Amino acid sequence: MIVVENLRKTFGGFHAVDGASLSIAKGSITGLIGPNGAGKTTLFNVIAGVLDPTSGRVTMEGEDITGLPPHELFHKGLLRTFQIAHEFSSMTCRENLMMVPPGQSGERLWNTWFGRKRIADEERALRAKADEVLEFLTIEHLADHKAGQVSGGQKKLLELGRTMMVDARIVFLDEVGAGVNRTLLNTIGDAIQRLNAERGYTFVVIEHDMDFIGRLCDPVICMAEGKVLAEGTLDEIKANEDVIEAYLGTGLKNKTEVPA
């Protein structure tokens, strides 16, 4: 679905992504791991149009999407979340979801005068869809809570819910488990698996929690120093000497597992 070819992103003399090449299969949940500074988030930012690549190419189902801005990729069904949730804190959780679909009639001044019935009909449909999403994510009890007042894990669920308000095809999740307690992390994992199995979402997940990666992801890709170091199942990755070296600098001599 996504093919990345020899992608590079430099900042001055620093090579954050240094010739990375990888493929993301349609319908997969792919894990992306690596030590801090490996280039994982920068790779996400380049694919998702947040940053322009220095060189290289990104295609989505054969279409060249290299350097397209995020709003164009959004319309193609490519979405991403961030390490820190970006909610509208003064709005309710339901309202946060209702804002997502583009091209709403209420956005046009003319319609506020002459299209009030259309606006009202759209808002009823959006409200019903938002409530369905909140129920799917098991946070329907937070519908009328201000988004800025819910927990970090619930904000991550809300971000996942935003992808459900449009026709998402592939979602890039950046450290979805950061700062999230184990119970909510399991809830997030359940939602990802259901979206993958029931709605055909493709996911790419950056995460440091190896238990979470092991539960959800196959294949797993490991990056280090801006390059793709290895790809395979999590067990294969954890047994790879180059991966162990990248994480621990010890090679196989200590036979230590890749840390979570």
UniProtKB/TrEMBL annotation:
<keyword id="KW-0067">ATP-binding</keyword>
<dbReference type="InterPro" id="IPR032823">
    <property type="entry name" value="BCA_ABC_TP_C"/>
</dbReference>
<dbReference type="InterPro" id="IPR051120">
    <property type="entry name" value="ABC_AA/LPS_Transport"/>
</dbReference>
<protein>
    <submittedName>
        <fullName>Amino acid/amide ABC transporter ATP-binding protein 1, HAAT family</fullName>
    </submittedName>
</protein>
<dbReference type="InterPro" id="IPR003439">
    <property type="entry name" value="ABC_transporter-like_ATP-bd"/>
</dbReference>
<dbReference type="GO" id="GO:0005524">
    <property type="term" value="F:ATP binding"/>
</dbReference>
<dbReference type="Pfam" id="PF12399">
    <property type="entry name" value="BCA_ABC_TP_C"/>
</dbReference>
<keyword id="KW-0547">Nucleotide-binding</keyword>
<dbReference type="Pfam" id="PF00005">
    <property type="entry name" value="ABC_tran"/>
</dbReference>
<feature type="domain" description="ABC transporter">
    <location>
        <begin position="2"/>
        <end position="250"/>
    </location>
</feature>
<dbReference type="GO" id="GO:0016887">
    <property type="term" value="F:ATP hydrolysis activity"/>
</dbReference>
<dbReference type="GO" id="GO:0005886">
    <property type="term" value="C:plasma membrane"/>
</dbReference>
<dbReference type="InterPro" id="IPR027417">
    <property type="entry name" value="P-loop_NTPase"/>
</dbReference>
<keyword id="KW-0813">Transport</keyword>
<dbReference type="InterPro" id="IPR003593">
    <property type="entry name" value="AAA+_ATPase"/>
</dbReference>
<dbReference type="InterPro" id="IPR017871">
    <property type="entry name" value="ABC_transporter-like_CS"/>
</dbReference>
